[in-house]
Design goal:
Length: 479
């Protein structure tokens, strides 16, 4: 009855929702700081109960009502002409056979890599040396004795301030926030508990982004989404209590855009699969950008070898990653084909101010032999892109791969990050997201945190994709 009541209430709110953003100032509650290197590490052999983290996985009512029959795609599928750049670093990070899904969030600093998953928070050097692994509940624990789940972690590194910011959800009720005091993630972190203003004490799923001036996160609730903006000046001064501005949004799973080029805060929302609504938080007016496709965002269950258990390819109705580069927004999401029974990946390049689609692409196997999902991307200054993602088929265990697209628009074949080593059989949850980033200190290097399977275990892995720069012609110089 509780679930039915929630669904009915959510349906009513979605039907009545308007695109206008409501605003409210709230304050996060400070918790005691912790020093990561002093916390008790994870014992990998410790017994755990097998469990799947709760998610409202089904498409929201607005998507169901807005769907049209699957149409012939107009998204261009590139003919690969490049060999994928090499992986110069590739090592396993955190795994768990008792908890699903992985939720592979990661961030890259000057000297460190931080992976934040449902299996724990792991710190490594860039060469792969393991420094520490802490369970998420120990790191973000709200009280001394707390048996609730901490999950859906996200982490970012702010190069301008040399700080790390991490968030997760606690027991469907609160968002937990941690910010490091220095660039060493093993040092001291200030922590906060955030209680969001909404009619139901329920939050689920997180997106986290940086702008030049703010930290922006989004979480869904039963009536839509809440986007929260935190001033870096307040956050890094350890303001007590910490002020933040919230924006109510009538759609589920809107995605904030990482935009370190300016202080403009954008959010994206995929509306019915045939358009993207781009909204600035400083204005209630959005720009609707039509997509070259009919509504083809359908959930798909992917096969695997060694088991009849099929794995979910995730949320096909929202944009997973969005980042600003050279004035354009690049975004990526899973694309589920109902009529062809396959999962693919669609990416978009948008001009947010003109409201124009500049470019798009599709990573897809037309034979429906291979299936791709849980994508993440980033773009360097030259305009080169790497997309990392999960790969599935009936002839392989759950694996991971990547595609490189250079600044001239040439695309590579699919490179292998890690091939699965066993089936995942005890639940259909896989994902829910991965991470791909440009190294903030080396614009030719990309890092991607992906997932592969061993026998009934998921394992996350860091990989460095080393690219080459395109020479810039120097004018007026003779040799």
């Amino acid at each position: 009855m509780i679930l039915i009541s929630r669904l009915l209430a959510a349906a009513l709110v979605v039907l009545l929702a308007t695109p206008a953003l409501s605003q409210e100032i709230i304050y996060a509650t400070p918790l005691s700081p912790v020093t990561l290197s002093e916390l008790e590490g994870v014992a990998s052999a410790a017994p755990q109960r097998r469990r799947a983290i709760h998610h409202e996985e089904k498409s929201p009512l607005s998507m169901l009502l807005g769907r049209r029959p699957d149409s012939v795609t107009l998204i261009p599928t590139a003919v690969p002409t490049l060999v994928p750049p090499p992986l110069t670093v590739n090592f396993s990070v955190v795994g768990s056979g008792f908890l699903a899904p992985a939720d592979a969030a990661g961030a890259v600093g000057k000297d460190h890599l931080v992976a934040a998953t449902n299996g724990g928070v792991a710190v490594h050097t860039k060469t792969g040396q393991h420094l520490t692994t802490i369970s998420l509940d120990v790191f973000m624990r709200d009280v001394v004795v707390d048996t609730t789940d901490y999950y859906d972690p996200r982490v970012v590194y702010d190069r301008a301030s040399d700080r790390w910011v991490m968030m997760c959800i606690r027991a469907e009720e609160h968002v937990m926030l941690g910010v490091s005091r220095t660039g060493d993630p093993r040092g001291t972190w200030d922590r906060y508990r955030i209680t969001l203003p909404q009619a139901w004490s329920y939050v689920d799923f997180l997106h986290l982004a940086l702008t030049r001036d703010t930290v922006v996160f989004e979480t869904r609730h039963l009536g839509g989404s809440i986007v929260v903006s935190i001033s870096k000046s307040d956050l890094y001064q350890a303001a007590r209590p910490l002020p933040m501005r919230t924006y109510g949004y009538g759609e589920v799973d809107v995605t904030p855009v990482t935009n370190e080029e300016s202080g403009v805060e954008y959010v994206l929302d995929n509306l019915g699969g045939d358009s993207i609504d781009v909204t600035r938080l400083d204005s209630s007016q959005g720009r609707l950008i039509r997509l070259p496709i009919g509504s083809a965002f359908f959930d798909f269950q992917a096969p695997q070898t060694g088991s009849t258990n099929r794995l979910s390819t995730g949320f096909t109705y929202h944009i997973e990653t969005a980042t600003m580069r050279n004035g354009a927004i690049y975004a990526v999401q899973t694309f589920g084909r109902s009529n062809a029974s396959r999962a693919a990946i669609a990416w978009w390049k948008l001009d947010p101010e003109a409201g124009v689609l500049l470019d798009s692409g599709l990573i897809e196997d037309p034979t429906a032999t291979m299936h791709y999902s849980y994508p993440s991307l980033d773009v360097n200054r030259a305009g080169a892109m790497v997309i990392g993602f999960a790969t599935f088929s009936a002839s392989q265990f759950p694996s991971s791969g990547y595609v490189y697209r250079d600044a001239l628009g040439r695309e590579s074949t699919i490179g292998t990050i890690r091939m699965g080593e066993g089936p995942f059989t005890w639940v259909d949850r896989w994902g829910d997201y991965t991470t791909t980033l440009v190294d903030p200190f080396d614009d030719t290097a990309f890092w991607t945190l992906q997932i592969y399977a061993t026998r009934d275990r998921w394992i996350t892995t860091w990989s460095k994709v080393q690219t080459k720069t395109i020479p810039t012609r120097r004018r007026g110089v003779r040799h």
